Amino acid sequence: MQPTDIRLFIPSKDFAFSQAFYQALGFSRDPVNDQLCIFSQGECTFFLQNFCNQALAENLMMQLIVKDINAALKQIESMGELVDKYEPIQQETWGKVIYLSGPAGELWHITQLTG
């Protein structure tokens, strides 16, 4: 087996709101059907599903690696009421990170790696 990609299925409590959230975060939406969308930006792709298991959503974490953490923070700040909770840039030993809560409770680690 030689994998070429891996894609996550992210749950949503409110499918329309979650779509708006990810579009405002800078991802392009491509509907698959009325229960599933593909979101992409560059080579990064994930599925958003019109389904939510709350325990799964609240324990789901993803790391999105970016080139410019300051640009990511500006993007998040521009999203207004679509963003419920985030922590500003924090310095870690491995780089800088913004912790962003998604609409269903999923946690994004938006990261600029050191070096």
UniProtKB/TrEMBL annotation:
It comes from the Bacteria. InterPro entries: Glyas_Bleomycin-R_OHBP_Dase (IPR029068). This is Lactoylglutathione lyase. It comes from Paraglaciecola agarilytica NO2.
